[in-house]
Amino acid sequence: MTTHLALLRGINVSGHNMIKMEALKTTLEAIGFQNVETYIQSGNVFVDTEEENAAAVGFKIKQEIFKVFGHEVPVVVVTISDLENCFKNNSFFKEKDIDLKKLYVAFVSIELRTDHINDLKMSQVKPDEASIDKNKIYIKYAVGAGKTRFDQKYIEKKLNLTATIRNWNTVTQLLKMFQERVQK
Questions:
Q1: Given this model, what pLDDT does residue 89 score?
Q2: 148-170 burial, b if ≥16 CB within 10 A, otherwise e?
Q3: Bridge partners (DSSP) listed for residue 13
Q4: Helices then strands (H, E): number in the chain?
Q5: What's the Cα-to-Cα distance from 81 to each of 7, 42, 88, 101, 183, rounded to whole Å?
Q6: Cβ neighbours for 66, distance < 8 A, ≥ 6 positions apart
Q7: Taking the model in full, what pTM does it have?
Q8: Mean of the pLDDT values across residues 78-84?
Q9: How many CA atoms lie within 13 A of 163 on its CB side?
Q10: What sign has the CA pseudo-torsion 146, 148, 151, 153?
Q11: Is it the case that residue 41 has pLDDT exceeding 90?
């Protein structure tokens, strides 16, 4: 069995794409996923399956959500090492006196090259900052996520991919949950 973490984008936000987590859990169990566990209402779902291919798992989840709930929901599937690397490779996290409330991670659907940072045209969203680490973009907001142009839509438009953003507290909790599942 392989454990996957599916990050659903844009569910239960401002009354749009509403999906109850219990209904999502039941739906995913019905198509063969095991040990389905959700974390908060924003669409963080752990599943166990014989399928090792993360993209295949994400596609299956996306299809079933559309079939059952009628919502077109992008899904990005990440590994435990993706989450661990958020702590190892995020230079903003290592800054002295960093305000963790301003740190976010955009998980993206493809592996990026470091030169993709040029495509983000960060000068248009200053003073926000970002750095790229494979399938993640580490973000440090100057003011906060609610007062920036540098959001998921901006990233998707500039890089032509699927992205979903999680705050630092959520990333921390998801890693803890992943580690607990792996230790069982």
A1: 95
A2: bebbbebbbebbebbbbbbbbeb
A3: 16
A4: 6, 8
A5: 15, 21, 10, 22, 14
A6: 72, 73
A7: 0.93
A8: 95
A9: 26
A10: positive
A11: no
- The rounded percent of the chain whose pLDDT value lies above 90 is 84
Asked if 52 contacts 4 with a C-beta cutoff of 8 angstroms, the reply is: no
Peptide bond into 74 cis (omega under 30): no
Q: By the 8 A CB rule, do 49 and 34 touch?
A: yes
Sign, Cα dihedral of 65, 34, 76, 139: positive
| 65 half-sphere exposure, CB direction, 13 A CA radius | 26
Lookup: tokens for 131: 């750095």
State the residue for tokens 């095991």: 34
How far apart are the C-alpha atoms of 65 and 72, rounded to whole Å?
7
Q: Where are the alpha helices (DSSP H) in 122-167?
A: 152-159
Task: For 41-60, give one letter per residue: b (16+ CB within 10 A) or e.
Answer: ebbbbbbebebeebeebbeb
Please state, in angstroms and rounded to a whole number, the distance separating the CA atoms of residues 136 and 107: 5
User: What is the chain's length?
Assistant: 184
